[in-house]
Structure formats: structure tokens, C-alpha cells
Design goal:
The protein is of the alpha+beta class. The chain contains 19 helices and 39 strands.
Amino acid sequence: MKKVLLILLLVIFTSIYSFGQEEGLISPFPATKHMLEKFKKLTPDQAKHLPIFLSRFTPEQLTTMSDADVDDLFDRQLVSFLRDSGAYFDKVLESNTGSPGPRLFTEEIMMSLKMVGSAKISPDGQKFVFPITTTDIKANKKNKDLFLMNIDGSDKINISDNPAQDYDPCWSPDSKKIAFISTRDGTPQIYIYNLETEKTEKLTDFPEGVSNLKWSPDGKYFSFTSEVKLKMSVQEKYPYLDKSTVKIYDKLPVRHWDEWVDEKYSHLFIMPSNGGNATDLNPGELYDTPDKPFDDAEQIAWSPDGKEIAYSSKKVENYAFSTNTDIFIYSLTDKSTKNITKDMPGYDKAPQYSPDGQWIAFTSQQRAGFESDRIRLMLYNRQTGTITELSKTLDQWVGHFVWSPDSRSIYFSAEDGPTVQIYQIQIIDGKWKTLTNGRHNLDGGLDITPDGKNIIAPLRSMIRPYELYSLNINNSKLSKLTFENDIEYNTIMEASITERKIKAKDGKLIHTWVIYPPFFDPNRKYPMITYCQGGPQSTISQYFSLRWNLFLMASKGYVVVAPNRRGVPGFGQAWNDAISKDWGGLPMQDILSATDSIAKEPYIYKKGIAAIGASAGGYAVFWLAGNHNKRFSAFVSHNGAFNLVSKYGSTEELWFPNWEFGGPYWDDKYKSQYTKFSPHEYVKKWDTPILISVGENDYRIPYTQGLEAFTAAQSLGIPSKLIFWEKENHWILKPQNQILWYKELFEFLDKYCKN
């Protein structure tokens, strides 16, 4: 079935890859007009049989047919096929896929997909373990289980089959056990699965639970993090006022991401792997290890001999104003802690010891207070204490990385324009090369086999979520190991994706994705969505997202335009830096240039163009609402920044506006940034329907930003809708809410954009 559908898609949607230096139309539909007309005349019941009917032909045969051959194909052969075989293949399709034929991608299908995580290879190189997350829409929850496979992808078994969350797997040095974290008894605790007995035992019972599990290479210890209460609560200070509910603060931050700061801090612990007492490696420290909210077990690493443990932490007094995380080394021998990056003021993260013990590699950003500075790959010499940059000739951000077993190379993921590929860099001289290419992202983590011959990594695209692939390092061949969603995709009609370089207002070229609806017909008219990227420094690459799924938007009948406007990585650091202190300037003009370029196409319905986005993309939507000159028929902003002045006073990480706008709004040196680029200054020019979505627990861009915008729209009499997501943060994460979001989104867009 997979081959059958692929043939159909190749016939109908084969697109010519082009990423030229000049702007120009790239045909998304090279099939003959006569064949298109025949397709259009089919009923839905007839069309669903096309994949199997056309499987007897090669794409070359179909695309070279004469008009007479096409007439015979559809008027005689297809009719005969439907009469003789259609009912039979209906049953085959339904029994294998639960569907009677080709389907358009929907939000329900999207939420039913299995989400594959990164692999951990056993020390003996024979097996790997990885997580799969499934969604129960009715129960409104997700379940993550751990699966074990042979290194070639055979013999998959579920080693943690239960309705809890099971994650952070790590191998014992002898490859006979897998430790992992599970919530099966309530709080997350350490469990150990024995491969020989196939039994699982619980190891810990920490009241606060555990996170970020690692097993020391000598097998003697586990490291993990857990919350430690270090401050007196208000209730403890005033025990006789036991009905009081209050929070009291005397320094920033008071809240972070989606939680209020409390009396607890995340500390790093070690404990014997056979059980026993745990030792706090950060006793009394009023800092989190690793830094919240996103840093994870990647921030903790054991030395090969098990005598040291390196970790990253943000041990600063001005937390809300600083990005200065450092790399610390704790010695199990003398119980000392050393900061090896104390003179480096930016983010220093993700330490990894080389297998030979000579080096610690880590990532670093040079400029203080700038979270989107180029992410460099650094080397710390353990003998001399010197630090050098290994990736100085690479104008990209280093992502996940792993050492080669011989300690001579490092393999890492990084953008290569609008995709994410795997690179190799030599330790001796910093020379690097890309090992992979193609329209995909290899951005989900890496692990390498002990013989150094293969890397296992998750691969995704705009059309499909992650599946695990094995990369042969010698010949760069990628081989698929997991097929978790193939049956589902056997009957899903895929979208066509093209790339353009569009000329900007100042003559520079903007890489832009264009995603066309399935069965796109250039002779029809389609509404259009201009997708505004968030971040703001975040590439529109080949990612598959449950929150902003461009394939789903195209499947709803929209041509989707996704420009990598100024202010995203992947195209050099200068392009990335160009948004800072120019939020409403050239980056917004880039979005308008891409919109105008595609809107000229004859298949675009000019009165049905919408702009949508979240976070910094939501800011862009609010900005465009007051500066679009009638281009758009609808706007959608999720958790967008509306009033830069009030946002400064309510957000939690002040280093961000201090970098992006120069400083606080009350300083005369930076005041013009706020008056010139804040969307609320242009509300009087709003004239277009707008949907505004906000999360109750979003403390990065508080929901009051969206409430201010909704109040303005309502006061101006503009058709507008507000969606308030209770207990959601900057992202919509609960399964039923995710489906509801898309229902409301497309109901709103269809109302104002479809004729």
C-alpha cells in the first residue's frame, strides 16, 4: 500500500525542486491538463480507488500518455476496474487502515499519530531503546512507553506497557539493564528493567520525584535531579494564619514560563545504582540545575572513568537579566566543584566528555543577554584548562552532538538553510562537512554505535512526524528503522511543497516555503495563509508540529506561504541578527514581500488571504493588522505581543527585551523602539477580522496582551473572537484543546477567506 500511494502521489504531485537565485514560479503540478480534467470529473467514491488502480503503471508511463490513452484509461479501464475489483479493494483498504480509501489529513488523524523519540544505543551495540508517545483523545491525555529493538530495527518489544509516562532511558554498562523514569506510582521515580528476566523493579521513592536520569559509565551511580525546599514559605512564617493564600517576593523573577517561583530548587544528586542514600551535589544553593524550563538530561554528563560529573547551571544573582549559564565539574574524589566557563558571559551548555577522557565538548553563545547568538561548539582541554572554539568556520547553530568512539570527530545536527542535517567536524583542525542532505530535519537527538559506523537519529518533515533512521557514516545512506505511522499514511493524500527565493524590499532574497493543497489544480482559485514564524529567531524548517501544522493547513484547502524572514537562523548569523532592534521594520516587510509575490499567482483568491502566527509570530500578526493596506482578509494571533511597554512589565526574562529593543521603555535611549514598533500604537488603523488566542498560564507573553488587543478590536467594532485557554501555557498542549484549536481556527479562516 505504501508503494501504491507513493506512485499516485508521484504522478499527481511531483514537483520540481528549485532553489535558484532569482524569484520565479515553480510549478507544483506538472501533470497534463487533460489528465487533470479527468481527475476532476471523478466522484469521491471513484477517486478513492485511484491508488490501487494506478499501481500497474509507472509514473513515466502515466505522464507520457497521449490524450487518447488518458481517455481510454479513465473511460474504459477505470470503469472496468471499479466494476470488477473496487468492492474487493474497499475491504482490503478498510481492514488494513480503518479507512475505505484516500483521505485528507485532519486534526483528528494528526492527533492519532504516534510520536517517536530519540534512541539510546546499548554499550554493546546490539540494541537500542526509544520512546513512543500516543494520544487518547477521549481521555484527554498522552501516554509514553519505552520500546526495545535490535540495532537493525527488528524485534520491537514494549518494555514499559502501562498508562503512565515512561522516559529518560539509560543503559547499564554491561547492556543487561535499562534504567528509566516512570510516573506509574504517581510521582516520577527510577525503575530498572532487566533484559534477561524481563522484569521491572522500582528503585527510588523521592517525595518530590526525580528527573534527568543518567547512569555512570562505571555502573556505580545514578545521577538525577530533584526539587529541594530551601526557603521558608509564608504559611511557615505565619502558621496561625493557616487560611491565608499569598505569595510574597523581594526580587525577580516572581514567575517563570508557566509557574510561580516557590521555595524549591532543582538540585543534582547521585546515589548508588543498587540503592541507598542520595547525595545532593548542590547543597544550600538557591539555583536550579539544570536551568528551567527546557534544559534536560543533556545538560549532565559523566566522565568516562565515573570520577567526575559535569553539568550546566545558571548560578547568577540577576537571574531575570542574565543568560549566563556555566559548565560546572563536580569531583567525586574530593567533593569539589569547579566552574570551567566563569569568564564566558553567555549560555554555556550541554557538556560531553570525549571517550578518551581528554576533552569536554560543550555549546556556547558568546554575547551576554542574547539567547539567539550563534551556538558554537567548544572544546575544554582537561589537562591544560584551555577552551577553544571548534566550529569557528561554521556560520550555523550547533544542535545535538555526539562524540565518535575514537574521540577524533564530533557529529552534530545543524541547519543547512531551511533544513537540519547531520555534520561531522574533526577535532584536530575544525574542518567540517555535511553528511546528509534532503528535504527533512534530523534534529531530534543523535546516538552512535560503539564501532563508530552508524548514527541513529529521528527524521521528520512537514508531512510526517519523527521516525528513527540509521545513518551509515561511510556512505551517508539513511535507512529507516521504525514505521510507526506508515499504515496511517498509506491512505493520506499528501501536500506538494516547493521552495522559492523571493526578492525583499532591499533586494535581498527571502527563502520561502509554499505548501499546496492535495490535488492542487492551478486552474482553480485557492485562499492563502501567510504563516508568520515565532521565536523570533527560529527557522521555518522541515518540522512537523502539532501546534502549527502547515500540512494540515494545506489539507484544509489553503495555499500556505511560510517565509524565512529576517531574524531566523539557518541562513547565517547576520540574517538572524537582522531582526533585533528592527522588529517592525524589514522583517515585517519580508513577510509582506512573500505575501505579495505568491498573491500574484492566478490560482490565489485575492480576497481570501490571512496572516497567522504565535508568540513573535503573533506579534507580527498584530503589527500587520495596523500596517497591511488591505492585503489580508483575516488575522489570527496566538499568545502574541501586543503592547511592548506593558509586556516589559509583566514578562519574566528581561534579558530578552533588553537585547531585542536595547533596554527598558523608560530609558530615553530606547523609548523610540517601543513607540515605533509596538503594535498597539497602530490600532487606529485596524480594519480586519481577527481571532485572538491566549493561554492562562503563559507568563512569557501574559494573556493580558491578547486581552488588550481583543478589547481594542471590540471597541473599534472589528469582528473579533477571543479564545482563553485555561491552564495552558505559551503552547496549547492538551489533546482535546489542540483539536478544538484547529476547529476554531479553520471555522474563523473559512468564514472570512473562502468564497
